[in-house]
Amino acid sequence: MANKQKDMRKVKQIFKLYSEGVSKRRISSRLGLSRNTFFKRGLSTKK
Known about the structure:
mainly alpha, globular
């Protein structure tokens, strides 16, 4: 259960940063995620 909460926090952070115009590369480095994680989580929107 705790793992799901951490995942949702990261997803929310991703959406927040992305809506502020932060690049996928910068978001992934800030949050310690692979850029491919965006595609796995359904965040494959194009800029």
